[in-house]
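Name: Ribosomal RNA small subunit methyltransferase D
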Amino acid sequence: MRSAIFDRLQREVVGARVLDLFAGTGALAIEALSRGAAHAILVEQQPQLSRFLTRQLDTLGISGRARVIQADARELLGDRGGRAGGRAAGLGPGRFDLVLVDPPYEQLDLYAAVLDALVTHEHLADDAVIVIEYQKHRGRSPQIPFPASLHSEAVRDHGQTALEFLRHVPSQTSLP
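Structure predicted for Ribosomal RNA small subunit methyltransferase D:
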């Protein structure tokens, strides 16, 4: 999957600020950094995986260009408890050029919630790319609603898994 993502995004990765949600082993963020991304934030809820990721970044000598946040992605991105859309929780200033979204396949509600929070709380740079990975059911892709400013550019099937590439076009927001 890594090569399917990054071969398609070659030039867009260089210099990018990357947000890897549901980071797991961190393979996607690490690949982005190896291909020239400027900085990556890896969000992982599981404490053991978060500690592993921190050690992994140190071992690879890239901890200066990447940071691990142990948190629930939906809460981090959202406006919980008066926080400014996750900024107070460590996402820092600026917006992301590339966002990787790969939640547990069975939790379809996370896709829409995370995509909505990314747009609503202005975490995305203009022209940002969001890559979502999901499992197809009986050969069909799930119906994942996303905000009007996100446009599907491509879907790449890989057996029972698919990658969808979305582009953030902020001038294309929906009217109230």
